[in-house]
Amino acid sequence: MSTEIVLTGIKPTGRVHLGNYIAAIKPALQIAKDSDCTALYFIADYHALTFIQNRDEFNELSYGIAATWLALGLDPDRVIFYRQSDVPEIFELSWILSCLTSKGLMNRAHAYKAMIDTNEQLGVDTDTGVNMGLFTYPILMAADILLFQSDKVPVGKDQIQHVEIARDIADGFNRNYGETFKLPNYVVDENTSVVPGLDGRKMSKSYSNTIPLFETADELKKLINKIKTDSTPPNEPKDPHTSNVFLLYKEFATPSQTQVFRDKLVKGISWGEAKQELFQVMNNYLEKPRNKYNDLMASREQIDRILFEGAKKARALAAPMLEKVKSKIGR
Ligand code: TRP
């Protein structure tokens, strides 16, 4: 009996913020901890290359994201944690799959389509800013997933279509060459709340309303003080459910702390005091991971060592699968 394979890719994009942590990192770490599965989590650095083409930025972001997950408790003894670009088998499979994938399927992929639509609206050439990596992005993602016979792929809603494309590609291969790939399923965590940003809208890099996860304590305090609140006077009761301060608080506090804080808001404490309390719980929670993150970033060989070990394990799984695929296609 083999255990279930859970795999997900982490694209290094920008500085990791609280929204990323609560909506994506925390649930993924929980899955790896709780369930009796084989978890493979990897840094999708070559996916990021489709739009980060500055050497230093690319390098910094890749290490930064690896250090973030390790600092937050990813245990490399339990999770096979690797960098995509350290596993060449993925790229070989990607080519094979691309030969079996119709261009039409890629035309329908939403990230590409969105760019085409924008270009049309702007009245410029439809392919402006589209590189081939962006166009074939879903095929590389299919290779990531299929090479490891993944059963479950935890993703955000925006990635559902990509996992469906991976299924289609697997199915197409299987029909032509006989049963080879497992058909993967996406897993979307419906419970994760939308994390409010400083202005109350969803916390997102594109709104510039984020709180970076590993900000210094001083900076964190400053940012928390910028969280938008309503104009309820200091002693008046406040509604916890519409309060951004409360919504953030409960993500970092124990249930009993949350209860106490809720009561205080309902009785009426000032927003200033409430923010002070938010800072306390958050800073307590983040202090250790922040230190660990800083340590790791100061010794990148440590990160490399962990990722290379992970890549070794990943390649041990990937190599026989790739051989199988090659024998199916007649190589
Ligand atoms: N495309 C994903 C994202 O933007 C990252 C990713 C790359 C991925 N390969 C994957 C996710 C394989 C799941 C499985 O977030």
Write the layout of secondary structure elements.
Layout: E1 4-10, H1 18-34, E2 37-43, H2 45-48, H3 55-71, E3 79-83, H4 88-99, H5 103-107, H6 110-122, H7 132-135, H8 137-146, E4 152-154, H9 160-177, E5 185-187, H10 217-225, H11 244-252, H12 255-267, H13 271-298, H14 300-329
Parallel strand pairs: 1-2, 2-3, 4-5
Helix pairs in contact: 3-13, 4-8, 4-14, 8-9, 10-13, 11-13
The structure holds tryptophan.
Mean of residue pLDDT values = 95
Strand content is 5-15%
Distance between the first and last residues' Cα: 30 Å
Helix content: 55-70%
As laid out across the biggest beta sheet, the strand order is 1-2-3
Sheet with most strands = 3 strands, parallel
User: Could you give me the name of the CATH homologous superfamily of the largest domain?
Assistant: HUPs
Radius of gyration: 22 Å
Q: State the secondary-structure class.
A: mainly alpha
- What's the number of helices? 14
Domains, number? 2
Bound molecules: tryptophan
User: Which regions have little confidence, pLDDT < 50, spanning 5+ residues?
Assistant: none
Overall 3D shape: globular
CATH-defined fold name of the largest domain: Rossmann fold
Topology as H/E string?
EHEHHEHHHHHEHEHHHHH
Overview of this protein structure:
With 331 residues, this protein is mainly alpha-helical. Helix 1 links the parallel strand 1 and strand 2. It is 57% helix and 8% strand. The mean pLDDT is 95. The chain has two domains: 219 residues, Rossmann fold (3-Layer(aba) Sandwich), CATH 3.40.50; 80 residues, Orthogonal Bundle (Tyrosyl-Transfer RNA Synthetase), CATH 1.10.240.10. Tryptophan binds next to strand 1 and helix 8. Tryptophan (TRP) binds next to strand 1 and helix 8.
